Amino acid sequence: SNNGLFRTFYADDEGYCNFTIPALKDNAYNISITGHNTKPSHFNFFFHILTALRLKDY
Fold it and tell me: Are 52 and 45 in contact (CB under 8 A)?
């Protein structure tokens, strides 16, 4: 999408995919990993501003 909230990423020939997601305050994220010969994986998490502050220290 134009706002960067909906994206599609593709893995390389080795199956690796590097990506970043926008760290928006109090935003819920749903990530699905699917593909040929893979079991679908789904991740859901909520990004809270305190999490962002803690991650900044690392």
Answer: no
Percentage of residues in the chain with pLDDT exceeding 70? 66
Count how many residues are written for the chain: 58
pLDDT value for 58: 42
Q: How far apart, in whole angstroms, are the C-alpha atoms of residue 46 and residue 26?
A: 7
Is the pTM value of this prediction over 0.70? no
DSSP, res 30: E
> Is residue 15 within 8 Å of 39, Cβ to Cβ?
no
